[in-house]
Amino acid sequence: MPRIVVPFAGVEGKTRLHASLPDRRELSLAMLGDVVAACVAVGRTVVVTGDAGAAALALGTGAEAVDDPGGGQGAAVQAVLAGFETGPVLVVNADLPCIEPDDVRALVMHVPVAALALVEAADGTTNALSLPGPDAFAPLYGPGSAARFRAHAAEQGLVVLSLAIPNLADDVDTLEDLHRLAVRCGPRTTACLARLRVEALR
User: Fold this and answer.
1) What Å distances lie between residue 27 and 176, 185, 199, CA to CA?
2) Strand partners, 7
3) What whole-number distance in Å separates Cα of residue 70 and Cα of residue 75?
4) Which residue ranges form the domains of the chain, and what is each CATH number?
5) Which segments in the chain show pLDDT lower than 70?
6) Which of 17, 93, 99, 110 is the most exposed place for a label (fewest CB within 10 A)?
7) Could you read off the pLDDT of 78-88 as tens digits, one per residue?
8) Does the predicted model carry a pTM greater than 0.90?
9) Which one-letter DSSP state was computed for residue 126?
């Protein structure tokens, strides 16, 4: 059974998602809820966050919650992995509202033991990782991170695989992204979008 880490920076990490802070928060948590629900169906899931609402959501969805030590996404993931023993681990971003359990399973299926697999976003960032062990991770997130993860894995002598999994490749930075993906979004995100549309008509 794989271990899965989901880093969640909170509403501060999604400043382009919505002009309204309460709506931005609700959308961010809805996406997180859909991600966590897909992940817990596959394996032990740990959400690392400094957001009390996100921690409560994680616990209520069957995941664990770990406090974010600060320092960005890479530091958050590294803090969780430091407590893991050897063996496969996945890292899945919290802004993938179309995710389904089979997408998570695809991250580990048919991946050789000595391999790092990743799903790259359209902008060259990294949405999901499959690692042969915690020590294969390095805090390389940010613009162009997919290329850095590939290079780091190659330096470690790992096979590097780029996986084409649409539901994991489609991340969300803006409300326009969400509307474009709306027909594929999970139930929490779909319900949140529906509420926002109703309110916009009032």
Assistant:
1) 13, 12, 14
2) 48
3) 7
4) 3-197 (3.90.550.10)
5) 12-16, 18-19, 198-202
6) 110
7) 999 999 988 89
8) yes
9) E
